[in-house]
Design brief:
The protein has 179 residues and is an alpha+beta fold. The protein has a single domain (28-178), classed as Roll (Thiol Ester Dehydrase, Chain A). It has helices at residues 2-21, 34-38, 42-51, 58-63, 94-110, and strands spanning 66-71, 74-79, 117-128, 139-148, 152-160, 166-178.
Length: 179
C-alpha cells in the first residue's frame, strides 16, 4: 500500500512538473552569435526561440518566462508567478511586469526586421493596472507593433490574466540599425 501511494505521488510530481514547465523543458538559455543573428530575419529568429532551435536569453531562465507565439509584428510571452517574483507586500514585483513587456514589445519589433538588421530599446513606459498575485495564475504579455520604420520601431504591450483582464499596459520605442 505504501508503494502505491509513493507511485501516485511520483506521478503527481511528474504531472505538476509538466504543467508548470510546459515547453520550457525543451528550451536552452544563452545568447545567439552576431553572425548567426545576421543570417536570419527577425521572424526566423523569434520562431527559433519558440521552437527551441535557438536559446532563450538568460533572463527568461532567471524569471521563468517563455516566448510562446509569434507572427510578423506580434509576440506573446507567458509566465506562472511564483514566490520568487514577490515584492515585500506579497504581490508580483513591477520589475517583472516591466521585463515581460519590454521583452514582448522588443521581440514584436524584431519579428518585422529583415536579415542583418537589429534593434534595441530606446525607451519604454508601463502602467500597472491591477495587482498580480500568486492567485492570479499564468499571465500573458503580448506585444504588437504600431509602426516599424527604417530607424525607429514603436510597439505596445498588454499583460493579461487567464480571464483576459488587463493587468498592465506598456509602450516602447526601439532603435533599428544594421547589425
Amino acid at each position: 500500500m505504501a508503494l502505491a501511494g509513493t507511485l501516485r505521488l511520483d506521478v503527481l510530481s511528474i504531472v505538476i512538473a509538466e504543467r508548470t514547465e510546459g515547453n520550457m523543458a525543451n528550451k536552452t538559455y544563452g545568447t545567439v552569435s552576431p553572425e548567426r543573428q545576421k543570417a536570419m530575419s527577425g521572424l526566423e529568429f523569434v520562431k527559433g526561440l519558440i521552437s527551441g532551435a535557438l536559446p532563450l536569453n538568460t533572463i527568461a531562465q532567471t524569471l521563468g518566462y517563455d516566448v510562446v507565439e509569434v507572427e510578423s509584428g506580434r509576440v506573446a510571452i507567458t509566465l506562472d508567478p511564483t514566490g520568487a517574483h514577490l515584492n515585500p507586500w506579497g504581490t508580483v514585483h513591477g520589475g517583472l511586469t516591466a521585463t515581460l513587456l519590454d521583452s514582448c514589445m522588443g521581440l514584436a519589433i524584431q519579428s518585422m526586421l529583415e536579415k542583418g538588421v537589429g534593434s534595441t530599446t530606446l525607451e519604454f513606459k508601463i502602467s500597472l493596472v491591477r495587482a498580480i498575485t500568486l492567485e492570479t495564475g499564468q499571465i500573458r504579455a503580448e506585444g504588437r507593433v504600431l509602426n516599424c520604420g527604417r530607424r525607429v520601431g514603436m510597439a505596445e504591450g498588454h499583460v493579461t490574466d487567464a480571464k483576459s483582464r488587463l493587468l498592465a499596459h506598456g509602450t516602447t520605442t526601439c532603435l533599428i540599425f544594421p547589425s
